[in-house]
């Protein structure tokens, strides 16, 4: 889950022969924070080359999602999991089809009933602090994610009752039959930290220790992380990058110039910068993803306790305007939390509420409201052009929206105290988890909790009981999507792109949905 409520950001790479040491502003999150630094050489920011002084392949990645927390339990499964995956590996990972494949676990199997799954870990693996990667480490990671006071993951692990460690095996006992577990326990929800380091979560947050492809050698909170290749990573032979310099992205308008000067060679960019990036000779591409933005309604509060008002809002939304104004043609209209073509996308639910402002006005009149009589506060954490579009579109049907900025927006949102808000998510590798997050009675994205649409609970339970390789699985999953979309609490609007700009010296990345995977990626000029 991600609470990114603003469009995206900028970056681009270019080649010159002089060294550029860009002046960067410290973000508010880094101010007043003690700097934690491990003594190691810092990568050169010389432009024109993707190699360090020693001739090694160097990735210079500037990210709008620079981790606020390096403890994966606290960081949760928001967009920054992509950056944390430099350090942490998981039991499974996702391939280009969205299927769970081995990572730290070489294999797994369920018992006959489907309420227990055993993960078999690869032998002879260690975390970067020397602690063994074994069943006990998996048990510790899951228990910490379920119990740690500031965990952002406990709500994702409700199907797990307990874990038993048996050498290199982790036996996961479930509260219900749930064949989604291999999908769930991937990069987003269970990045595994060294239990030795995690004994002090506060220290882990400043000095991350995992078993992933890279090891942090220097960390300046909120600003920069320097990493080197982990020679003990299980798939190290397919990691061709020797060093990484990860920085917090500056203002969107300056990322492309940073890519041109060689200060960076990889960046997520704002769609508004895509044209400039292409003109600069950079590779610009959309990494597949599950991003979806929505308008959140609380049906427990007036006026959304009236179904006709909810439907009026549905018909008042022109999704094309979001795409045109916010994504410069790179995004897509969406009326559900999955992209077209994905196994969970339900074609039968497509365009159920087409843009029809006249019908919206009629429904409001039938609900007993005159034009201008409904006045709403749209509460968001910061300025957001999405909010202005919603304000404008609802004004056209007679609903007055006052945009209210509250930097502590999350507290009333997750307490379900707001009437009206916006939310954007990056989805989950488990489609069932995406659906329950949006539509379940305790779903974090369901502003109307404990409300859930009729039939959803039974439909999602059937999904969990259906093995992923069953021929019936796709239709069972789509039926659950269809049941969820009967919800009156969410109006989906558009999908923002995972837009990337990179130097041509970096080879193409695997097209794993929503992930950034460095397996097999090369940087010309490096080893």
From TrEMBL:
Classification via SUPFAM superfamilies: Periplasmic binding protein-like II
Family: Belongs to the bacterial solute-binding protein 5 family.
InterPro entries noted in UniProt: SBP_5, SBP_5_dom
Native organism: Streptomyces luomodiensis
CDD domains: PBP2_NikA_DppA_OppA_like_9
Keywords of the record: Signal, Transport
Protein name from the UniProt record: ABC transporter substrate-binding protein
Solute-binding protein family domain sequence ranges: 100-429
């Amino acid at each position: 889950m991600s609470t990114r409520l603003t469009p995206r950001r900028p970056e681009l790479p270019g080649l010159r022969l002089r060294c550029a040491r860009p002046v960067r502003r410290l973000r508010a999150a880094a101010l007043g924070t003690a700097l934690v630094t491990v003594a190691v050489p810092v990568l050169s920011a010389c432009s024109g080359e993707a190699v360090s002084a020693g001739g090694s392949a160097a990735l210079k990645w500037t990210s709008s999602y620079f981790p606020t927390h390096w403890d994966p339990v606290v960081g949760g499964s928001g967009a920054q999991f992509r950056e944390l995956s430099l350090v942490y590996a998981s039991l499974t990972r996702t391939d280009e089809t969205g299927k769970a494949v081995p990572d730290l676990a070489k294999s797994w199997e369920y018992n006959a009933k489907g309420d227990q799954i055993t993960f078999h870990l690869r032998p002879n693996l260690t975390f970067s602090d020397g602690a063994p990667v074994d069943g006990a480490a998996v048990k510790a990671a899951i228990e910490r994610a379920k119990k740690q006071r500031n965990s952002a993951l406990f709500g994702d692990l409700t199907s797990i009752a307990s874990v038993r460690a048996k050498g290199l095996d982790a036996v996961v006992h479930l509260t219900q039959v749930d064949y989604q577990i291999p999908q769930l326990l991937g990069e987003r929800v269970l990045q595994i930290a060294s239990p030795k380091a995690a004994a002090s979560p506060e220290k882990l947050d400043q000095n991350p220790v995992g078993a992933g492809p890279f090891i942090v050698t220097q960390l300046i909170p909120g600003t920069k992380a320097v990493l080197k290749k982990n020679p003990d990573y299980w798939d190290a032979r397919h990691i061709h990058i020797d060093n990484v310099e990860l920085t917090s992205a500056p203002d969107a308008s300056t990322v492309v110039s940073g890519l041109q000067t060689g200060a960076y060679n990889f960046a997520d960019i704002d769609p508004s910068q895509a044209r400039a990036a292409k003109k600069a000779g950079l590779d610009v591409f959309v990494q597949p993803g599950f991003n979806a933005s929505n308008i959140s309604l609380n049906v427990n509060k007036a006026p959304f306790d009236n179904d006709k008002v909810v439907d009026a809002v549905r018909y008042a939304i022109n999704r094309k305007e979001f795409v045109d104004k916010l994504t410069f043609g790179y995004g897509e209209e969406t009326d559900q939390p999955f992209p077209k073509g994905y196994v969970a996308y339900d074609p039968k639910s497509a365009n159920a509420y087409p843009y029809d402002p006249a019908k919206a006005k009629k429904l409001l009149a039938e609900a007993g409201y005159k034009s201008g009589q409904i006045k709403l506060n749209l509460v968001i954490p910061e300025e957001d052009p999405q909010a202005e579009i919603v304000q404008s579109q609802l004004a056209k049907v007679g609903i007055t929206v006052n945009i209210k900025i509250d930097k502590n927006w999350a507290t009333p949102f997750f307490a379900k105290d707001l009437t009206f808000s916006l939310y954007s998510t990056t989805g989950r590798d488990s489609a069932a988890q995406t659906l329950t997050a949006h539509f379940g009675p305790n779903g974090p994205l369901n502003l109307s909790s404990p409300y859930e649409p009729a039939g959803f609970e039974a439909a999602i339970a059937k999904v969990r009981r259906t093995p992923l390789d069953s021929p019936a699985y796709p239709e069972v999953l789509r039926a659950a999507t269809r049941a969820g979309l009967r919800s009156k609490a969410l109006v989906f609007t558009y999908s923002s792109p995972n837009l990337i700009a990179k130097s041509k010296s970096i080879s193409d990345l695997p097209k794993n949905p929503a992930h950034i995977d460095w397996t097999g990626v090369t940087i010309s000029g490096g080893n």
